[in-house]
């Protein structure tokens, strides 16, 4: 009867399951996981920087460690990539342009931070800076991974500080401390904005959708 026919059909379908197309979602999953990992890393670095900045500013001493210290940005500080771009203008950029800007900025900021690591006067501060530099290096690599998974090329050209080797960092101790202050301030803004960038990108690239790909012989 009809019941026997349905039973026979189901048995035949089950017997032929090995010949069905294989499931493959590795590419989609890789992109989604890469974006999530980069977002998590920006949030971790934000948290880590709050402690590091407080410790380093105390090392610099007054007025740099005073809560209301808000000096104008000096022309020499322009070597540090600025995150003070109009938010509407920033959001109007393509995903590729924002990712490239993040990659360039963190690559340059990392170079400056490594210079701080070699100049810090206490072992504890050098340890904190070294750990933060390792985490920031991980962020640079993670951004590169996101760009690769989305099919974007890495930015061409140098990403390090534009000043040639041997150029004096600052003519006096106060200006050197001012450079360090602005480096930490810009880094805080970059991380805050990057976290928002990758949170939006997560919503554009949803979790992996299972897709079918024919892998059986003859297809």
Category from helices, strands and their pairing: mainly alpha
In total, how many beta strands?
2
**How many structural domains can be distinguished in the coordinates?**
1
Order of helices and strands: HEHHHHHE
CATH top-level class: Mainly Alpha
CATH-defined fold name: Growth Hormone, Chain: A
Query: Which percent band covers the strand fraction?
Result: under 5%
User: Strand order, biggest sheet?
Assistant: 1-2
CATH architecture: Up-down Bundle
* Computed CA radius of gyration, to the nearest angstrom: 25 Å
Subcellular location: Secreted
Main location: secreted
Protein name: Cardiotrophin-like cytokine factor 1
Pfam families: PRF
Write the layout of secondary structure elements.
Blueprint: H1 2-15, E1 22-24, H2 26-60, H3 87-91, H4 95-119, H5 123-149, H6 173-204, E2 211-213
Antiparallel strand pairs: 1-2
Helix pairs in contact: 2-5, 2-6, 4-5, 4-6
Protein name: Cardiotrophin-like cytokine factor 1
Main location: secreted
Pfam families: PRF
């Amino acid at each position: 009867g009809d019941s026997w026919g349905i039973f026979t059909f189901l048995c035949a379908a089950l017997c032929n399951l090995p010949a069905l197309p294989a499931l493959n979602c590795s590419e989609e999953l890789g992109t989604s996981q890469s974006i999530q990992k980069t977002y998590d890393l920006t949030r971790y670095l934000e948290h880590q920087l709050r402690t590091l900045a407080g410790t380093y500013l105390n090392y610099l001493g007054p007025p740099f460690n005073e809560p209301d210290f808000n000096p104008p940005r000096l022309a020499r500080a322009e070597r540090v990539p600025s995150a003070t771009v109009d938010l509407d203008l920033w959001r109007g950029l393509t995903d590729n342009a924002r990712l490239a800007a993040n990659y360039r900025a963190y690559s340059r900021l990392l170079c400056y931070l490594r210079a701080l690591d070699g100049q810090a006067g206490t072992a504890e501060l050098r340890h904190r800076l070294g750990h933060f530099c390792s985490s920031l290096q991980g962020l640079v690599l993670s951004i590169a991974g996101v760009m690769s998974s989305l099919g974007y090329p890495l930015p061409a050209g140098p990403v390090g500080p534009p000043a040639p080797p041997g150029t004096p960092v600052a003519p006096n101790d106060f200006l050197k401390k001012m450079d360090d202050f602005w480096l930490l301030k810009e880094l805080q803004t970059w991380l805050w904005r990057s976290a928002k960038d990758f949170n939006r990108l997560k919503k554009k690239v949803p979790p992996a959708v299972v897709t079918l790909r024919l892998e059986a012989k003859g297809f």
